[in-house]
Amino acid sequence: MIDDFIQELHDDLFGAVSADPGMLYVPVYQSRTPLAKDEEGNPIVGQTSMIEEEIKKALSGLELKNGKCGIAVVIMLPDVEGESVNSAAPAMKLIAKVRVIENRLVNEGSTGTGITASLLCTHLLQVLNRRSFRGRSALYPDLKRMITEIPLPDGENCHELTLIQHVTPDALVKVSTPTVTQEGAAIALTCTTAGASIYYTLDGTFPGSGNAAASLYTAPISLESGIHQMRVCAQKDGMQASNDLIAEITIE
Fold first, then answer.
1. Which among 229, 141, 224, 221 has a CA at the least distance from the CA of 183?
2. β-strand pairing of 71-75 with 28-30
3. Which of 34, 116, 122, 232 has the most CB atoms at less than 10 Å from its CB?
4. Which of 80-84, 89-93, 134-138 has the highest mean pLDDT?
5. Which residues pair with 79 in a beta bridge?
6. Domain that holds residue 151
7. Domain boundary residue, one of 167, 187, 213
8. Which residues pair with 165 in a beta bridge?
9. Would residue 173 count as lying in a domain?
10. 160-212 pLDDT, tens per residue?
11. Closest Cα to residue 216, out of 231, 191, 198?
12. Number of compact structural domains in the chain
């Protein structure tokens, strides 16, 4: 379950940073550590070197973004740290790191962005501070290592922004799968997780709150005669959405 949180935060950070207007001239990459694996569990050959090559092109000036180059952002795969079970709210922490790498010689040249790694890191702190994704806990800067300088072997200037997201025990628990009960032409939906909202669709699409075709269940549903395929899912803020249930309903 925590692996899902790590990957989703990785993807959400990449999406948020990539969409920021401040990245107009700055390419954004996702690290691939640990390496993605094929169906047999073997690392996919060449993926790390491909990303490294793309970053080197951006830093060296061989690849421009909107006509500029010399700096790049890398979204690192988040780490996980456990907190003390004796704390008031036992939880885990996801440690998110965003690296800004700059080749000063190129970045300060005629095609360079002129944006230093330190300045861009500060900008990203403003963009991501208290940002929340998927209804989960907001991101906060790690005050002990908020923005640090990272030495690189090739001499590039690298600054790293570190953010924390707390994952509570509830967030690691899935909402119970809803049940569908039919009484004549009336369909009732229930969920044993207190406070959960139940969504359903009749067109086969996923019944999530972000789907315009999904309806929030509030009272028994009346269906016309025929065979209907109802897809149901329950959601609650701070928890994993339930498994979706597909029920075939016949109304005579």
1. 221
2. parallel
3. 232
4. 134-138
5. 95
6. 5-167
7. 167
8. 94
9. no
10. 999 999 887 666 678 899 999 999 889 999 999 999 999 999 998 888 777 88
11. 198
12. 2
